[in-house]
Amino acid sequence: MSGPHGLFRVAEASAQALDPLKKRKSPFIAALLGFLCGGIGVGLYLESFSDFLICLVVGILLAVIVPGPGILLGAIGAAVWGALRADASNKKAGYRE
After folding, report:
1. Domain assignment present for 15
2. CA-to-CA distance for 50 and 72, rounded, in angstroms?
3. Any alpha helices (H) in 1-97, and if so which ranges?
4. pLDDT of 67-88, one tens digit each?
5. How many CA within 13 A on the CB side of residue 90?
6. What does the pLDDT look like over 9-48, one tens digit per residue?
7. How large is the average pLDDT for residues 51-74?
8. What domain count does the chain have?
């Protein structure tokens, strides 16, 4: 389970393991806010401190490990996490598409 596909599967499984959010959330808006605002955007939109922390920690680690491009990778990671988390929560709560 190495490479980008393995990381995506781990993120998807992690998002599915969390409890559903209080309300239905748009994966597109979560991704957009994650890309533009990082963990703060994801956390505020999803109303979830744990999602904020996940995006923040991953973003900081990427910025430190890969200076320069790590910031862009952190933004992409927050966008992916936001979309996965909103989608998994909507499905778990039984909301229709």
Report:
1. no
2. 21
3. 3-17, 27-37, 39-46, 49-65, 69-93
4. 989 999 999 999 999 999 999 9
5. 16
6. 888 888 889 899 999 999 999 999 999 999 999 999 999 9
7. 92
8. 1
Domain that holds residue 77: 25-93
Sequence-ordered list of residues with C-beta below 8 angstroms from that of 86, at least 6 positions apart, any chain: 21, 25, 26, 27, 29, 30, 46
Q: Is residue 63 included in any domain, yes or no?
A: yes
88 in any annotated domain: yes
Q: Dihedral through CA 58, CA 35, CA 13, CA 54, nearest 10?
A: 30
20: Cα within 13 Å, side-chain hemisphere: 13
The answer to whether the beta carbons of residues 34 and 75 sit under 8 Å apart is yes
> 75 to each of 3, 4, 42, how far by Cα in Å?
18, 15, 11
Model pTM score: 0.89
Q: Is residue 7 part of a domain?
A: no
The arithmetic mean of pLDDT across residues 58-73, rounded, is 91
CB atoms under 10 Å from CB of 32, counted, come to: 16
